[in-house]
UniProtKB/TrEMBL annotation:
SUPFAM superfamilies: HAD-like. GO terms for molecular function: hydrolase activity; metal ion binding. This is Haloacid dehalogenase-like hydrolase domain-containing protein At3g48420. CDD domains: HAD_CbbY-like (cd07528). It comes from Theobroma cacao (Cacao). Transmembrane segments: none annotated. Keywords: Hydrolase, Metal-binding. Belongs to the HAD-like hydrolase superfamily. DOG/GPP family. It holds the Pfam family Hydrolase. It comes from the Eukaryota. PANTHER family: CBBY-LIKE PROTEIN, XYLULOSE-1,5-BISPHOSPHATE (XUBP) PHOSPHATASE.
């Protein structure tokens, strides 16, 4: 069985609250609306402006390594999020291409299934939230391996066993620290914890794999203060908002006071459908996805001297929700 490109249809979800979509946001790099007349021409060589379909104003999206947005954003913001919610794969660690994909392929090889997911194919499969769901959709589309059982119930058990082994292989990569944290993650987590902001990780990945990332790469002291919502804790995966709604309810916070950090379009859709503010930090697989509805888009969180944003900037986005 090869790794030919497949086309998969995905469900879509609309936001339960339109506030985050329609509310006018100021510039990412300032508390004031910026215009071309107020900025040097060199600024526009490294900045992209996206037009907001629901507003006559623009949202500035900072993606250049040269732009330092946090200095302006942190100067006057007094609002802090009630909770800072991170996706795991692609946000905490850029795990997909050289982590999860490799672990899936090693599992397929061990089980002699004759399946290999190349880089491009796996990028398409990532449009489906959840590893078990990903494998099921792939086999439904291309045909089940000869070694797979025939009944639907037995196939569910077969997929679960594959996913369990894949998770074991992935955890070995994390425990051996072969995949590093993305720039700025530890900094932003520390800022939140120091200010009493609740921190959680909300992921479609297996709970053991997410826990391994948090404990091994962020360290046990941080890990004990971070709540994890992952895997099958909810019946429907992203882009369904269930995992973010569960997180807000469990943490006892209003969704409108939460800031989510995501890297994918399906994660953004889930956060927005839950009524939350969402910052996107693009990852290797998601750089070309549509993030028009994001409250801000960056290439990463970043550490000084190339910091893109900080906790105060997250708070400044919440402040703008209440500006007329």
């Amino acid at each position: 069985m090869g790794s030919s490109t497949i086309s998969l249809s995905l469900p879509t979800f609309s936001s339960s609250s339109t506030n985050s979509f329609t509310q006018t946001k100021p510039s990412i790099c300032s508390h004031h609306q910026l215009t071309r007349k107020s900025l040097p021409s060199s600024f526009f060589t490294s900045t992209t402006f996206l037009y907001n379909k629901t507003s006559a104003r623009t949202k500035q999206v900072c993606t250049s390594f040269k732009i330092k947005c946090s200095a302006a954003s942190s100067s006057s913001s007094s609002t802090l999020p009630a909770a800072l919610l991170f996706d795991c794969d692609g946000v905490l660690v850029d795990t997909e291409k050289d982590g999860h994909r490799i672990s899936f392929n090693d599992t397929f090889k061990e089980k002699e299934l004759g399946v290999t997911w190349d880089v491009d194919l796996y990028g398409e499969l990532l449009k489906i939230g959840g590893g078990k769901e990903r494998m099921t959709a792939y086999f439904n589309k291309t045909g089940w391996p000869d070694k797979a059982p025939k009944s639907e119930e037995a196939r569910k058990e077969f997929i679960a066993s594959l996913h369990k082994r894949k998770t074991e292989l992935f955890m070995a990569l994390i425990e051996n620290r072969l995949l590093p944290l993305r720039p700025g993650v530890a900094k932003l987590v520390d800022q939140a914890l120091e200010k009493g902001v609740k921190v959680a990780v909300c992921s479609t990945s297996n709970e053991k794999a997410v826990s391994a990332v948090v404990s091994c790469l962020l360290g046990p002291e941080r890990a004990e203060k971070i709540k994890i919502f992952a895997g099958d804790v909810v019946p429907r995966k992203k882009p369904d908002p269930a995992i973010y709604t569960l997180a807000a309810n469990t943490l006892g916070v209003d969704p409108s006071s939460c800031v989510v950090v995501e890297d994918s379009a399906i994660g953004l859709a889930a956060a927005k459908a839950a009524g939350m503010t969402c910052i996107v930090t693009k990852s290797s697989y998601t750089a070309d996805e549509d993030f028009l509805n994001a409250d801000a888009v960056f290439d990463c969180i970043g550490d000084p001297p190339e910091e893109r944003f900080d906790l105060a900037f997250c708070g400044s986005l919440l402040e703008k929700q209440y500006v007329g």
